[in-house]
């Protein structure tokens, strides 16, 4: 969990005031992993309690000195005048939402309270640790240690109740705001316009609400009306989650916002999970939301969807390794910038209409659609399964991306079948000393050839000026088969295949095939019109590579030594 400075909690040492409205602990007793949603206006305060179950602490807390309680919360919404809007509208900064927390003893005759702290929401978020000291009954402690029968009888926890008091304060003075303090701003007949709505939760093993400064989104590509993204490289955590919960339902969900609405969130509540969930989003991948119709995980996403939707599927092998979320956003406007927010649930419940949702919100990721429909995103191809990018749009399939994908796949399949026929003439299953290589197999050769073939027969579109891109006229593609069978609708820029795909094919296949790659020194023109190379100093991708990208080598210094 990474918390940037802007989202860390800040302690304010202020005196406690008499609360003008107290919600009793009977009505609002917090439960483990069950956050509370509440609303306040000046003159009101909430009081919550969380009781530590001493009998369940034995094994987890034996030989420790204190119980840790994780406290976290988010602001869902606040009065409009407190938002810092992007149009330079004046906003109020004389009110803040504060949580005071402390512990009280289980013995009603003991009025001592410990651990007083005050935390104020920043960017819509708080997180803190409450600590209650543990002592031990020596008799039971010795007995349990000798028998390893941890019953909890040895634990002596005097302060068993955590109290949380929530109120609106003046951040300059630390005083609690009263109705008379803001008479000029508040119309109490219209409560909805004056409420601060927040979520608060307590747990003994993790923060219910978290913020991560990474966007955790990898943008694969965009075209004129759609975008394709994946969740971050989190296959180990995701695989563990899927197997532990015996589910194919991913913990990740995506929210699409307009750039203008996302700016309001960024300036005010960018660390708040509940603000993202309850804000004016345009679409979401959550399945029970009426604004979108996501696909079932491990079911192929439909390319022929033109409405505003976010479809989601898991991509990976049958053993649930190397698993990622792939998310396809359709129905976007051309030449428009949008904002994406990815969230990852913590716990077992995930419903956009459920106030007990908990999880991690990642930072904003911006995407921009292309101006024209020259190229279209295709993926989930049968034979070129690694293709997931925008390719030149065929003239006959101007709006049918599924048919377009099938045409590209069919073109590659016909060429690949010829190659596999030739590969059958190689003694792949001979004794090791009779094979063409002791290190490579025919399966390695077939895969490397397929990756190379897909990258050259399915051009990846790029933008003018990008490193590794070359301009192609619509009937002068790199291969005449593309002009004949695909017939691009317009001129386009192609991101050249990585030279690594050619090197891997030459390395993995028998010498009988005569494969070779252009040399930058002896065939400079051929190299530059056929391939590019991985250059880590560039911010965008510099060549098109299909397969395991960890095999890519930064070849700038190899090809162009200083």
Automatic annotation (TrEMBL):
Biological process per Gene Ontology, one example term: calcium ion import across plasma membrane
Gene Ontology MF terms: stretch-activated, monoatomic cation-selective, calcium channel activity
GO CC annotations on file: endoplasmic reticulum; plasma membrane
Keyword Signal attached: yes
Signal peptide (residue range): 1-25
Entry keywords, A to Z: Signal
Keyword Signal: yes
InterPro entries: MID1/Yam8
Listed name of the protein: FZ domain-containing protein
Organism: Henningerozyma blattae (strain ATCC 34711 / CBS 6284 / DSM 70876 / NBRC 10599 / NRRL Y-10934 / UCD 77-7) (Yeast)
Classification of source organism: Eukaryota, Fungi, Dikarya, Ascomycota, Saccharomycotina
